[in-house]
Amino acid sequence: MSLNSVFGLAQTALELGLTSSLTVLALFLSYTMLNVCDLSTDGCFTLGATVGAVVAIAGHPYLSLPAAMLAGMISGFIVALLQTRMGINSLLSGIIVNTALYSINIAVMGNTSLLNMNKTVTVFTKMKDALAGSFLGEQYKLFVVLAAVVVVAVFLALFLRTRLGLAIRATGNNPDMVRSSSINPFFTTTVGLCIANAFTALSGCLLAQSQKSVNVDIGSGMVTVALASLLIGEVFLGKRSIPLRAVGSVLGSFVFRLVYTIALRFNMPAFMLKLVSAVIVVIALAGPYLKKELPMIRRRMDKRSSREG
Q: Is the pLDDT of residue 76 over 70?
């Protein structure tokens, strides 16, 4: 493999990793901080992609970003409403909304499952024109997604230090204590899920505009990818300060996408990539437990060998 090929693989993985890291940061907020496993991620990702694509096709590329985030916030609000006001389990709430979003996404796309954006002006083509002639001209996609990730990561790091952010973290740690402290856990859960789903929708919007196409299955498996990336990030940087954990989430997303890209480079069938995702999640989840149990397993094996000897 030539040096140019290596750099090409790294750049592709970096662009995709940064784009999907927005979803990882969303999961960092909802799953790690708020302790809510939101399974509407796949549908919300697609919702952001479809809404952003439709608004961009209508001639408003910059407006597509806040429009997608607003759609994501509405999705998060509905998940929180089902969970907090209707007494539905958080997992079931996410599944219900994810199922409903499939029909909504097709309706947003105009009763079709695919939108072509080859002739559409997007935030990426706008940035390409703005950077034309400069040394960043060839890296316009990377510049856009990097700027988005930096803004979101900084926002999260600062927000989680505010009074409301601390209340959200406390809700994830001990909702009973929060309730006894006159903080409404329903409100903090709703705010957390709205913000998290806004980031997920932004991620979908950027991916659709980067690829210049969107289909109804663009978000399929994103919750698995985001969870795997989040866990990989914790392996690298551990559970330290909020800024470092946010950086770890972005790093985990890049590593995960790099594995994906290398697998495709070596002609792994595309249908096997979902299995790769599942295996990575299992390793990341079971790794700490097996590491903890390893000394005991070794002692048992030593006892067995001594008895047999």
A: yes
CA distance 4 to 22: 28
Buried b (16+ CB within 10 A) or exposed e, 262-277: eeeeeeeeeeebeeeb
User: Would you say residue 299 lies in a domain?
Assistant: no
Say which DSSP state 32 is in.
Answer: I
Start-to-end CA span in the chain (Å): 50
DSSP 8-state code for residue 270: G
- CA 159/CA 243 separation, integer angstroms: 11
Residue 303 in domain: no
**How far is 190 from 79, CA to CA, in rounded Å?**
8
* Dihedral of alpha carbons 34, 36, 41, 43, sign: negative
78 pLDDT exceeds 90? Answer: yes
pTM of the predicted model, to two decimals?
0.88
Tens-digit pLDDT profile for residues 165-212: 888 988 888 877 777 777 788 899 999 999 999 999 999 999 999 999
* Region of residue 111 (phi > 0: left; psi between -120 and 50: alpha; otherwise: beta): left
In a domain, 257, yes or no: no
- The pLDDT tens digits of the residues spanning 45-57 come to 999 999 999 999 9
Give the long-range contacts of residues 90-96, CB within 8 A, separation 24 or more: 90/36, 90/37, 90/38, 91/37, 91/39, 93/40, 94/37, 94/38, 94/39, 94/40, 94/41, 95/39, 95/40
Reported as a pLDDT band with limits 50, 70 and 90, residue 149 is very high
Is the alpha carbon torsion for 283, 284, 285, 290 positive or negative? positive
Any idea what the Cα angle at residue 123 is, between residues 207 and 262, rounded to 5°? 35
Q: Containing H/E element for 94?
A: helix 90-108
**pLDDT of res. 4:** 58
How many distinct structural domains can be found in the chain?
1
Is 150 a domain residue?
A: yes
Residue 35 structural domain: 18-219
